[in-house]
Amino acid sequence: MRSPNLLGSLRLPENGLGIVRARTILGSMRMWDLPFDEAAVNQVVEEICSEAAPGLYVLVEESGHRECVYVGQSENLRKRLLDHMSGSQHSRSRCSRWSRVLVFSDGRCASQSDLNEEVRLSIEDYLCEVFRVNDYDVSTKSTRQPRYGAYYDLIIEKIKQEIDSLLLYSGRIRRLTGKVEERVVDSKLLKEIIENKGYRIIKWGKYYGKIEKDNQTLDVVIREGSFKNGEWQVTLRDDSKQIIESGRGFLLVPRGGILFAPSSFIKSILDSSSSSVFKNNTLDLFIRFQEQSACIRYKSYESDASPHLLMPRTVPRKSSRPPSRDVEVETPAGRWIWTHDTKQQRQRFKLALRHRCKNIGGRRRRSKIKRK
Question: Which end of the chain, N or C, is less packed with Cβ atoms under 10 Å?
Fold first, then answer.
């Protein structure tokens, strides 16, 4: 789970053109919230860089009963945004629905920016996911999947943290995609919980396990699931499908309250759709965790799985750290807790408030504020 509040955010009041500027205190990402008109777009792009500036943008429609967004990315933000406003009469009529635009950039030109094509594509997909979780109507079409190495994983994760902080502080979103109560439970802790329920573990792996109770050996299908549109998708095929069809075993999803559903329960949900459902090559189940409950869905058939949660409440994370010092921060998005887990993080926070942090070539340089 990311902790966007540790980065902090600064937000300036709206200026004469209706532009609101924000940036992270301990990061390099900046966000502009501006009206979707040519004068505001030109001023923001000039602030970012005099050359072609890469970045991401979110077109926002605030009218209507549900807010709609379009997420995009470009190596040249000015050209892309002006293309949205110009072009054919048909394209202009479609763009007239957008009232504001959010622009994300690290303030550097294309030759020095971390926002290359692979990073932008990954962040674009992430922004679509974030806005869907927050009940926005996302009209962005699917994009190609980027390919990148471990180095870019670190950069992308850092940018995601900063975007979370900026969007939360601005009040545009109230929920993140990876909620604490849905994180994967540690395997060692998971086995302890199952043993405390009276089961003896015979064999345990990443995807399958065997347990024993009352002299009966039962198979366990272990699936972490993949997050899609606010639900966790679990795919059953081959051996896992046979275990569910036999009705003698369990489906274990080690997230949230730890779903430990009997195969007979899963089979009843699948059989409700069709008597020949197990003839399909794959079966996709969708699981939705809530604070103290869970729900399983197959196509349009849905069932409450709360009785099959091993721990209805969130599993606490084990930590040897001393108690953290929390600071309550009042933001437009509500009251948030700014947590400083270590002495180093507290010192960095105080230093950032006393100094201006500048990013030059990927390295942070601090310059003291002159006192009168």
Answer: C
